[in-house]
TrEMBL record:
It comes from the Eukaryota. The keyword Flavoprotein does not apply. GO terms for molecular function: enoyl-[acyl-carrier-protein] reductase (NADPH) activity. GO terms for biological process: fatty acid biosynthetic process. One of its GO terms (cellular component) is mitochondrion. Keywords: Fatty acid biosynthesis, Fatty acid metabolism, Lipid biosynthesis, Lipid metabolism, Mitochondrion, NADP, Oxidoreductase, Transit peptide. The keyword Phosphoprotein does not apply. Belongs to the zinc-containing alcohol dehydrogenase family. Quinone oxidoreductase subfamily. This is Enoyl-[acyl-carrier-protein] reductase, mitochondrial.
Length: 367
């Protein structure tokens, strides 16, 4: 998406419709509608380059959907986009945020799948969700059931979807099988624990040692984690005792890299699969030769954004996954991660908190 310089408006072929300013002679007498958005005009540290700006909202047109944003989280990918280090970078200037939930205010005459009052989330990344409201195109939105809690809805389209796809797409798992994952207290990790528990799959959850270790262990256990171990414990002989209680995992989920990855691979089953979806340690994935030769392990990667792009002509598959996750939410089997709600105007506080180590609470901007 592109923010026209000096005009205070957002422009984009797909996410935003009709956002070009009309010539002055054609402007109606009524003052144009305004909204606020967190905009960055260059890459850099978010606290330095983000600005809360007052912008002019696009016209609705025949195919537009006017959405009032309600809440939008700050995810690591959002930070990396602003820093300019992510694999997907919007044209600058851009509005920050890739995830969130809003409520439909008005729809154009050609819109058929949405109506005022509907809850909606982004169908893909780059929508720019850190804003009070906007006009989006119909195909960029996914409708939610009306009874989904605010924080569950705001944090649904990235982490739970990532967890669901990794559990479903790489190994055929059933009740009694087990998986192992690092960064288990992350947003994806918490979703993996809950979805796996709903499916009867055992989870071995690896976390870093920290001052509030027991608090994190208790949190994961309350979500349905079967076993929680630190990275240091993962390297100890006592792990053999754990595998007397639970089968060795057929699937490993890696969000860290470095030594954590190497140690998880030591415990994976013959012909098992490790899926890497993040690299928090900023260290390469190191694989022992023995894991390839004697275990014939498979190493795969996963990126939710790419999966959604691959389904661009099959939106029913995306919608079906979202509804499956909503069903788990409605049954009480999937909850939002621990969240801290911060008003949009206090975004600097939220940004600072989101970038601190050992923070288990997701920062969510509220509009």
């Amino acid at each position: 998406m592109r923010l026209a310089k000096g005009l205070g408006l957002v422009r984009g072929a797909r996410p935003l419709l009709g956002t070009f300013l009309r010539p002055r002679a054609a402007v109606a007498a009524a003052a144009p509608a305004r909204f606020q958005a967190l905009v960055y005009e260059q890459h850099g540290e978010p606290a330095r380059v983000l600005q809360l700006k007052d912008l002019e909202r696009a016209e609705l047109g025949h195919s537009g959907v006017h959405v009032k944003m309600l809440a939008a989280p700050i995810n690591p990918a959002d930070i990396n986009m602003i820093q300019g280090t992510y694999a997907l970078l919007p044209d600058l200037p851009a509005v920050g945020g890739n995830e969130g939930v809003g409520q439909v205010v008005e729809v154009g005459s050609h819109v058929t799948s949405l109506k005022p009052g509907d809850l909606v989330i982004p169908a893909d990344a780059e929508l720019g969700t850190w804003r009070t409201d906007a006009v989006f195109s119909e195909e960029t939105l996914v409708k939610l059931p009306p009874d989904i809690p605010l924080l569950c809805a705001a944090t649904l389209s990235v982490n739970p979807c990532t967890a669901y796809r990794m559990l479903a797409d790489f190994e055929t798992l059933g009740p009694g099988d087990s998986i192992i994952q690092n960064a288990a207290n992350s947003g994806v990790g918490q979703a993996v624990v809950q979805i796996a528990a709903a499916l009867g799959i055992k989870t071995i959850n690896v976390i870093r040692d920290r001052p509030n270790l027991q608090e994190v262990v208790d949190r994961l256990t309350s979500l349905g984690a079967d076993h929680v171990v630190t990275e240091e414990m993962l390297r100890k002989p006592e792990m053999k005792d754990l595998f007397k209680k639970v089968p060795k995992p057929r699937l490993a989920l890696n969000c860290v890299g470095g030594k954590s990855t190497t140690e998880m691979l030591r415990h994976i089953q013959q012909k098992g699969t490790m899926v890497t979806y993040g690299g928090m340690a900023k260290q390469p994935v190191t694989v022992p030769v023995s894991a390839f030769i004697f275990k014939d392990v498979k190493l795969r990667g996963f990126w939710m954004t790419q999966w959604k792009k691959d389904q661009s002509q099959n939106k029913d598959r995306l919608t079906g996954m979202i509804l499956t996750l909503c069903d788990l939410i409605q049954k009480g089997q999937l909850t939002a991660p621990a969240c801290t709600q911060v008003p949009l105007k206090d975004y600097r506080i939220a940004l600072e908190a989101s970038m601190k180590p050992f923070i288990s609470s997701k920062q969510v901007l509220t509009m």
